[in-house]
Amino acid sequence: MKKIAFKTLGCRLNQYETDALASRFHSGSYEIVDFSQPADIYVVNTCTVTNQSDQKSRQTINQARRQNQQAVVVVTGCMANNYKESLLESKAINFVVDNERKTSIFGLVEKHFRGEVADPEGFDHDVFSYEAAYKTFHTRSMIKIQDGCDNFCTFCIIPKVRGRAASRPAAEIYRNIAEVVEHGFKEVVLTGVNIGRYDDNGTNFEQLIEGILNLPGDFRLRISSIEPDGFTERFFELFSHPKLTPHLHLCLQSGAESILLRMRRMYTARQFRQMALKLRELYPDFNLTTDIIVGFPGETEAEFEATTNLAKELNFSHIHTFKYSVRSGTRAERMPDQLSEKVKNHRSEVIRKISEANKAAYYSAMIGKTQRLLIERIGNDGVARGYGESYIPIRIKAKNLKRNQFAEVILTGLHQGKELEMTAELVITDRSGGSNN
Ligand code: SF4
Question: Is the pTM for the entire model greater than 0.90?
Answer without folding.
Answer: yes
